[in-house]
Amino acid sequence: MSDEQPEGARPTADGGEAGGAAGSGDGIEAAVAPSAPAPPALAEREAGLLSRLRADLGDGIVEDGNACGGLVVRVRPDMWRRAGETARDKLECDYLSFLSGIDWAPASAFCGEGRGDASTPQQPSEMDFGTAGSAGRFQVFARVASTGRHWGVTFKCDVDEEDPHAESWVPVYPGADWHERECWEMYGIVFDGHPALRHLYLPSGFEGHPLRKDFPLLAREVKPWPGLVDVEPMPEAAGAEGGGE
Amino acid sequence: MTVTPPGFEVDPSLLRHLDGAQIGVELDNGDMVLSMGPQHPATHGTLRLVVRLDGERVVAADPVIGYMHRGYEKLTEFRTYPQVTTLVNRIDWLSSFANEVPFVHAAEKLMEVEAPPRAEYIRTALTELARVATFLLFLGEMGLQVGAITPTFYGFRDREYVLNLIEGATGGRFHPNFNRIGGLKDDLPWGWVAECRSAMRKVLDACDDFEDLVLGNPIFEKRTRSIGIIPAVIGASYGVSGSNLRASGVDWDLRRDGEPYLAYRDLDWKVWTHPDGDSFSRYWVRLQETRESARMVLQLVDGLPSGPIMAKVPRVIKVPPGEVWVSTENPLGEMGYYVVSKGSTGPFRVKIRSASFSNVSILPWLLKGCYVPDVISILASLYFILGDIDR
Predict the structure, then answer these.
(1) Chains A & B: contacts with CB separation below 8 Å
(2) What ranges do the domains of chain A cover?
(3) Is A235 near chain B, with CB under 8 Å?
(4) Going by C-beta distance under 8 Å and a sequence separation of 6 or more, which residues neighbour residue B102?
(5) Domain segments of chain B as ranges
(6) Which of B123, B263, B259 is nearest to B181 (CA)?
(7) pLDDT mean for each 10 residues of chain A (245 residues)
(8) B72-390 maps to which CATH number?
(9) What is the ipTM of this complex?
């Protein structure tokens, strides 16, 4: 019923991506990458889900996107728990697949070239956001699915960089408990309303948030990856350079 | 104050004795905290379970995980796409091949590449073989956990046939790393199909043996019936998936109900469910699924299409920007990857959704109120792999 709204939102959502594809395009990938990555419209089922979500959340939905056929819905931070409740009660999404965080900060500023490890794939140096966009560096995202109706939705929600807080989903999906503990220790995002944010994987005295992009992978910092083929120059090159020593 | 689990008949004279004993416990002692693990035979690895006991009864249970955390989500950000398949191999090490498939599919979806039909058939066959191998180990191990040692030997013996097949096709018994983006590394070797048929017949026979040996055993039934019941609604809200959820009566299998993947649409097979949701039904469902998988493999090798095994992909894999969520029905449950690409040779972020993590997260709820020996039976019947919890 409200199909016009997502249509209007989509060009802005994916304009940045289209630019990124064109910028990184070279002869190799041209064979497989589509020349015009115009996002295909959501399938009928996903569009129906979106309109049902819109009916309940209204302007709580900031943006929606299409991730290779999957529905991605970005909601306002104050509607995060409400989005989960809507998915559970109105969309019959009884199953929590996962809940996690994402750090959109560019990786290349902290690792990669010039940081002792040239084997790391080079990511774009400017910050850009994926499907359904983001307001800043951190986001929380979760996937819920329906075991009876066999559909699923990915929700995203922006998290403030200075004071990372998000509403807890534990009252909605009890399984979110461990996922939020993991997200808290890995990204430093605090979940309001979580019964006990304790370390899950890391030892309790651990400092820092390992999955943040500015947290270095220390093993690579200390020593270049031994799997890198051309760490040492070839013998004849070494002989030519080191002959004077 | 004595609570009897449903379906578990107890001699009334024994109950009177228990009542007296429990009063003594309540007067004299507080709760006892028992630490099971990190090295406990029932945990298949380093899972520590801290349980608070009132007599023999569990008041609260807190699984402590992370002893095997290898930081794969961080490591994927430092690897190229083909290198990541080596990592994801080691998440659930009993069914490594099945772990590769969703990740490779995610990359293929973003690149809009499709593997040729022959590759998809071989992938399906190897995924199902991984499932058979994983479940055969379970069918044997579960007997061991409740005190029957014979099924273990049968389980290991028959799993060996399957591992030989996987090794014959891929070169690796546990970590094949056989998937390539766009297809497979190699075609099947000569004679593999005939070998596969005879092995699958052995597996089908073995399933009959397990049915007689384990399911028909009254002690096994006493130890597992009405033990560790997961109601469907609770299970789903905790993210329990796969056979564990189907054993609670949820008719949901991603091979049939998810995004179409591999060659499952071409096969004639059935999704098995059990209404009870207890340890017994989890064993029963996995036994039926082992049979079903063996039959699937027989159908796959019969209908194996000819043709290439690799699609045309560039030598250096660059994945166009975008996001994709791909999840598949792995032996332990729903295994999924949320891949965020920024057009580079490596992923920007990979969220790994592993089945055991969510399956085990229900333990604090599930173990509350059960007896200590049942903890073992419940742990074994949930069937988790530590690498799949800790990633």
Answers:
(1) 169
(2) 4-17+28-242
(3) no
(4) B326, B327, B328, B330, B335, B336, B337
(5) 1-26, 72-390
(6) B123
(7) 40 39 40 48 80 85 83 89 89 90 74 53 76 83 90 90 88 90 90 86 83 78 62 55 42
(8) 1.10.645.10
(9) 0.82
